[in-house]
Amino acid sequence: MAIYMATTKSISRGSGQSAVASASYRAGEKLQDERYGKTQDYSKRQGVMSANIILPSELKDKVEIDRNTLWNMAERAENRKDSRVAREWIINLPHELDEETRKALAHRFAQSLADKYGVIADCCIHRPTEKEIARGADERNFHAHIMLTTRQAQLTADNQLTLGDKATIELSDNKRRSIGLDRVSNEIVELRELWERTANEQLAEHGYALIDSRSYQSQGIDQLPQLKMGKNATQMERDGIQTPVGDLNRLIKERNELVFNRELADIKRTNQLADRIIVESRKNQNAIERTETSVQPSQENLATYVPPDQEKSIQRENRPPSVDFNLSMSQIEPSQETTPQDLMAKYEQWKSQNKTKPSDLLKDIEQSAMSKYEQWKAEKAIVEQQAQLQAERQRQLEQDQAKIRPDYDNEIGFSP
Question: What is the DSSP letter of 352?
Answer without folding.
Answer: H
